[in-house]
Amino acid sequence: MLNLVFTTMFLNTLTPKFYVALTGTSSLISALILIFEWWYFKKYGTSFIEQFTVNYLSPLLGGAEANPADSDDLPVSAIEQPVPDCKVWQNPLSLFRGAEYQRFTWATGTEPLTYYDMNLSAQDHQTLFTCEYDVGKLDYEAMHIAWRERNKEARIKTAKEILEKNSECASAMILLAEEECETILEVEKQLKVAYKAAEVNYKRSQSSQHQNAIHEAIYRRDINVLVYIKRRLAMCARKLGRIREAVKMMRDLIKDYPTVNLFNIHENLIEALLELQAYADVQALLAKYDDVSMPRSATICYTAALMKARQVAEKFSPDIASKRGLTTAEMNAVEAIHQAVEFNPHVPKYLLEIKALIFPPEHIQKRGDSEAIAYTFFHLQHWKRVEGALNLLHYTWEGTFRMIPYPLERGHMFYAYPSSTESADRELLPAFHELSVYPKKDLPFFILFTGGLCSFTALLAVLALQYPEPMDNFARSLASWLFLPIGYVIDKLEAFLPSFVLT
Asked: What stretches in the chain show pLDDT beneath 50?
C-alpha cells in the first residue's frame, strides 16, 4: 500500500511540461518507426517488425514450427513457406544493347538494364557459345572471360583482340554486333559476317559429331551459335521493315532445327505474322504451340485472346450485351481474355495505357511484371490495329479476379499465381520503374498500428501544449482511475494475508 501512495504522490508532482515532453517524444519515435516500416514495406514488400518477430524472437520464445506433415490442412497464408527459386527465361524479343538500349541511356541518362539481368545474359552466352572442351583454345577461353566482364568497353576491346588472332570467331562478332554497333543496319552487316563464319564452323563439326562426346559437345555449341545469329538476323529484318523476309527466316529455323527450342522462335514468328495481319497463320501457330505440355507465355495467351476478340470486338457494346446477354462468340472472347489475365494479370494495365511502359529487360519472369512489359512493348500496336479489341479488354478484364479463389490458394484455369514473381521482377527491372505487384498487398498491421500511435500521441502533445491545465487534470484523473482497481485488489489482499507479506 505504501508503494501505491508514493506512486500517487509522484504523479501529483508532475507538471504539464512533462506531459508535453512525454507525448511529443512518443509521437516522434512512433513517426520514425512508421517511416522506416513504410520504406521497408515499399522496398521488400513485408513488415520489418513482423519479419524480425517471426524469424528471431519467435524461436527464442519457443514458438512452434509448422509441421510439414500438416501443411496440407492449412491455408497458404497460415504456414511459413520458403520462397522457391524463380526460373527466369530469355526474352525472345530482347533488344540490341548498342543500337537500342544504349540510345535510351543517351537520351535519358539512366540504364534500362539491371546488373542482375546483364549477368544472366552473360551466363547464357557462356552456356550457349562455349563448351567444356574449349579448354586450351585461346579465343574461346578469352570469350568466356569477355562475356563476364562488367565493363562494356573492356568486353568490346577483348572481342576485337580475339578477332585479330582468329578472324573466324563468330562469338566475338556476336558481341560486337550486340554491343558496339549503333544502328540496326550496322548490326545486320556484322551478323552476316558472323553467320558465314558460324556456318563454316557448323559444317566442320557436323561431319564429325558422332565420333565421340567431345565432337558432340562442339557440334551443339556451333549449332547454338548458328541458330542465335540467324534468329537475330531475322529480328533485324523485322525491325528494318522486311517482314516477309523475317517470317521466312523464322520458319526456316523452326523447320531446320526443331530440337533447338531455347530461343522460343515461335514467339518472334507470331509477332511478325501479326504485323503482316496474317491472322490465319497466327491461328495455326497457336494451335501448334498452345499445348498443356509446353510452358505457357503471355504471348500465347494474349494472342489467343486477341484472335477471339477480333471476331466480335468491332460490334461489341457493353450496354447491348448487358440487355440481351453475350453471344457464343462473345462468351468465347471473354473467356479467352479471362484466361489470359489469370495467366498474367499485369498486362492489361499496360495495354490500356493505365501504367507507363518501359524498355523490356533481356530476361523475363513468366506471369510477372517483366513478361507483361516485354509482351506489351511489341504487341500493343497489334491490339490497337484490331478495332474494338482494347475496348472489349477494358470492360471485361477485371471480371477475372471474381473467379480466382482468394487468397490465391489455387488457380481457376492455371496453377495458383506464384508469390515469388515479385522478388524476381525487382531484380530484373530497373529501380526507376514502379513495379506492378499482384495480388495487391494489404498494409501490414504494424504500419497501421504505428500510424495510429503516431497520430494519437501527436494529438495528445498538441492538446497538452495548447490546454496545459485541463490536460494535467485529465492525466491525473486518468491515473487515479487506472489505480482504482489496483488499490481495490491490494485492499482485498490485506484482509486475507498477513501484513508482512505485502510490505
From this structure: 1-2, 63-85, 406-411
- DSSP class of 290: -
DSSP 382-413: HHHHSTTHHHHHHHHGGGGGGTS-TT-SS-SS
Distance CA 467, CA 455 (A): 18
pLDDT digits (tens, 9 = 90+) for 290-345: 765 566 889 999 999 999 999 888 777 777 777 777 788 888 888 889 888 888 88
Which residues are 364's β-sheet partners? Answer: 89
> What pLDDT sits at residue 60?
65
Cis peptide before 405 (omega within 30 of 0): no
Residue 366 one-letter amino acid: K
Long-range own/partner contacts, residues 115-122 (CB < 8 A, 24 or more apart) = 115/150, 116/427, 116/428, 117/361, 117/362, 117/363, 117/427, 117/428, 118/362, 120/88, 120/362, 120/363, 121/362, 121/363, 122/147, 122/148
Closest CA relative to residue 207, chosen from 218, 197, 194: 218
Q: How far apart are CA 182 and CA 126, in angstroms?
A: 24
